[in-house]
Amino acid sequence: MQLIHIHHPYDRYSVVFPDVGIMFLAEVEWKTFRTHRIHDHQEVQVLWILEGTMGLEIDGRRFQLSAGGCYVIPADRVHSVFQLEEAPRVVFLDLRVPPGPASPMTAFLEKLAPRMILRTDPARLRKGAARLRRALARPSLRGTARVQALLWDLLADTVARIPVDCHEPEETVDPRLHAADQFLQDHAAQPLSVEAVAATVGLSRSQLTRLFRAHFGLGPAERLRQYRIEKARTLLADSTLTLKEVACVCGFACPNHFCRVFQQLTRTTPTQFRRAQIKKRRR
Asked: Looking at the structure, do residues 45 and 124 belong to the same domain, yes or no?
């Protein structure tokens, strides 16, 4: 059973156990605020929050969970995780396992995925994370078995508690925020300025920007780019439009600008993304 250590600049540790179906396991610390990209994974993903608050946007819904919270994200589901600008530091465990009946853990998580939002005791979660770190310091057959057992313990503690829906109640959210966000989504293909969007809901540019950053973790312009790239992903996967046509339909006047923004938010080029989708359909 091979343990592979990999390195990312924001990870406290990150490892892979391909022989036992653990495609990625990391303890991650984000210290400063940054814009997060929309993306998906071929694996089922579990995120346990050890410290701070982490947001998740998936299927048009937004959640915020603090320490002890857990997200279960199905394979190939487009999503974005984010920090709070006023309190960006967050520490979390990131586990990814391959979809399908590859292992009992995968089968368990796929059954659990529709619940998506879970919560466990923060102190127990932090103790479990500390045990994982100690087990990973002993790269051996016994250590690998210990890591698997500890992951099962974390899952058991998580599902032992009643799931909570962490949606912010609608009445506590400024309705102008929803109106502006819907306007962005409906008019994403058109030239838009932040001032024009703010004017449609009776706000100033600075007021609208503050609302967006407080609720979404990013400004109106970044939010608009996300909507445009989400639509572009759909068109690239499901249509035969050229890159120039996709750029135009999604509100980009220049194909080169479209390609730059697409790569910035998805970490791949439009051409590479389309080829990957074609390969998926052929499997």
From this structure: yes
pLDDT digits (tens, 9 = 90+) for 12-71: 888 888 777 788 999 999 988 877 778 888 888 999 999 999 999 887 788 889 999 999
154 and 213 belong to one structural domain:
no
If one compares 216 and 225, the residue with the highest pLDDT of the two is: 225
Residues 54 and 119 in one domain: yes
pLDDT for the residue numbered 162: 47
Q: What is the CATH number of the domain that holds 88?
A: 2.60.120.10
Write out the residue range of the structural domain in which residue 218 sits.
172-282
Task: Give Cβ neighbours of residue 94 (< 8 Å, ≥ 6 apart).
Answer: 24, 25, 26, 27, 28, 45, 46, 47
Question: Using an 8 Å Cβ cutoff, are 54 and 64 in contact?
Answer: yes
CATH number, domain with residue 255: 1.10.10.60
Q: What is the mean pLDDT of the chain?
A: 83
Q: Is 9 found in the same domain as 144?
A: yes
- Concatenate the DSSP letters of all residues of 82-141 into one string: E-BTTB--EEEEEEEE-SSTTSHHHHHHHHHTTT-EEE--HHHHHHHHHHHHHHHTS-SH
Query: Is residue 166 predicted with pLDDT exceeding 60?
Result: no
Whether 96 shows a pLDDT value over 80: the answer reads yes
Beta bridge partners of residue 6, listed in sequence order? 14
Alpha-carbon 130 to chain mean position: 24
Domain count, the chain: 2
Cα gap 222→38, rounded to integer Å? 11
